[in-house]
Amino acid sequence: MARPQTIDGKIDIKSLSLSELTELLVEQGHPKFRARQVYKWVWNKGVTSFHDMTNVSKTARKQLDEAFVIDFLEPAMQLDSADGTKKFVWELRDESHIESVLIPDPGIPGHSKPRMTLCMSSQVGCAMACSFCLTGDLGFKRNLRVAEILNQALQVQQSLPEGERITNLVFMGMGEPLHNITNLIRSLEVLLDESALNFSHRKITVSTVGLVPQMARLAAATPVNLAVSLNATTNESRSQVMPITRRYPLSQLMDGCRDFPLPHAKRITFEYVMMAGFNDSWDDAARLVKLMSGVKSKVNLIPYNENPQREILRPSEDHVKAFQHFLVKRGVQTSIRTTRGIDISAACGQLGKATQGMRIEEAGIEGPTISLD
Ligand code: SAH
User: Fold this and answer.
1) Exposed, middle or buried: residue 217 (CB in 10 Å: 0-12, 13-18, 19+)?
2) Cα 364 to the chain's mean position, in Å?
3) What would the mean pLDDT of 191-195 be, rounded to a whole number?
4) Do 21 and 2 contact (CB within 8 A), yes or no?
5) Which of 17, 101, 233, 265 could form a disulfide with 287 if both were Cys (CB 3.0 to 4.6 A apart)?
6) What is the DSSP letter of 205?
7) Residue 53: which pLDDT band, with cuts at 50, 70 and 90?
8) Pair type for strands 74-80 and 6-7
């Protein structure tokens, strides 16, 4: 077993898989069934104290309390958009902040089912420095621990009225999930575990700027959906806005996508943020068609969300539709992402804005010591 993550010298129980917890508890003299019992309290009931585990003996509860911590996120702010989108700002133990966005979609009768999608963060800030993205302005602070990733799903689910459930999870919030791959993979394991959060891999999407070796590592670990933020069609233009292109040029990225093992009927989503005069010409559209050849793909056009910090403009709706039409006519499955939560800075690329005005600090503050693997 890898060294478990600890908080203040105690083991962070939410960083463990069920088999790891079983191993640890048996080592500590508990009966084997105890692990599943405790795991259910933590993940199904969402308790934050061992004292609430009423079917566990008092002595065992005390032992558990001495050895483990049940970590949770402090809600710092919640913002409600006129369109039903909700942004959750969380304060972490080191007083840094992250955001999650809940996006309800009523669906279209006879066409698409209602959905409740949670957009989750994977890091405090981001190291990828994509020039158009506001989260990049924060710089990179640190990776989220497993519990910090998972608690976003658990605590948002707990905040919902009886009968409402999160249906889909997307790692499209703050940070580059594949830059925090060890904790991401462990989190996915718990999200998929039926005795824990019990999501289907079909309903989870991990989005990346295109860290090619980590894409292969993710695929080897779990069959979740992959989304790649493409955003440009030549190495020259992509390098201008996404520095990662200098490490993994488009040819290498597309090879990595072609090699990505996809279960039957799955496709990789290519996100393409449309920026007027930068990547929305007909030459771009033609190059995009070429890039997609031989890849089981769908393109998701995201009209740029304008903001006062950048001079980048969103193309007109007509132009975005015409661009989509061009791709579809040439056999590329293409959709347009609806903008949600713009009034509360919860839309794509806007995360971090609300927290920027707040104090974001990293080290040197009093508080629990947190060990990262
Ligand atoms: N780092 C990962 C996960 C973040 S996803 C990744 O880049 O894929 C966030 C998505 O929002 C990315 O596709 C990014 O290209 C897009 N984005 C960033 N700023 C945006 C903006 N202002 N308008 C629309 N989309 C934006």
Assistant:
1) middle
2) 28
3) 95
4) no
5) 233
6) E
7) very high
8) unpaired
Phi-psi bin for 144: left (phi > 0), alpha (psi -120 to 50), beta?
beta
What kind of architecture, by CATH, is found in domain 74-356? Alpha-Beta Barrel (3.20)
Task: Give the distance from CA 315 to its chain's centroid.
Answer: 27
Q: Which CATH class is domain 6-69?
A: mainly alpha
Q: Write out the two tokens for 167.
A: 């249906």
In this structure, the residues whose C-beta lies within 6 A of any atom of ligand 1 are 128, 132-133, 172, 176, 207-209, 229, 231, 271, 273, 302, 304-305, 348-349
pLDDT of residue 353: 62
Share of the chain above pLDDT 70, in %: 94
**And the tokens for 27?**
């080592």
Could you tell me the distance, in angstroms and rounded to a whole number, from the CA of residue 218 to the centre of ligand 1?
Answer: 20
**pTM score > 0.85 for this model?**
yes
Q: Which residues of the chain are in CATH 3.20.20.70 domains?
A: 74-356
Catalytic: 126? no
pLDDT at 373 over 90: no
Rounded average pLDDT over 270-280: 98
Question: Which percentage of the chain shows pLDDT scores above 90?
Answer: 86
Active site residue 162: no
DSSP line for 146-174: HHHHHHHHHHHHHHS-TT----EEEE-SS
Lowest average pLDDT, out of 119-128, 220-229, 333-342, goes to 333-342
- Atom index in ligand 1 nearest the CA of residue 312 equals 22
Neighbours of 222 (CB within 10 A): 15
- Amino acid at residue number 295: V
Task: Delimit the CATH 1.10.150.530 region(s) of the chain.
Answer: 6-69
Residue 355: its pLDDT value, please? 58
Q: Any bridge partners for residue 90, and if so which?
A: 75, 98
Question: Which of 23, 66, 348, 362 is an active site residue?
Answer: 348
Report the distance separating Cα 340 and Cα 165, nearest Å: 19
Locate tokens 């959906």: which residue?
Answer: 225
pLDDT at 372 over 60: no
Q: Whose CA is nearest to atom 3 of ligand 1?
A: 172
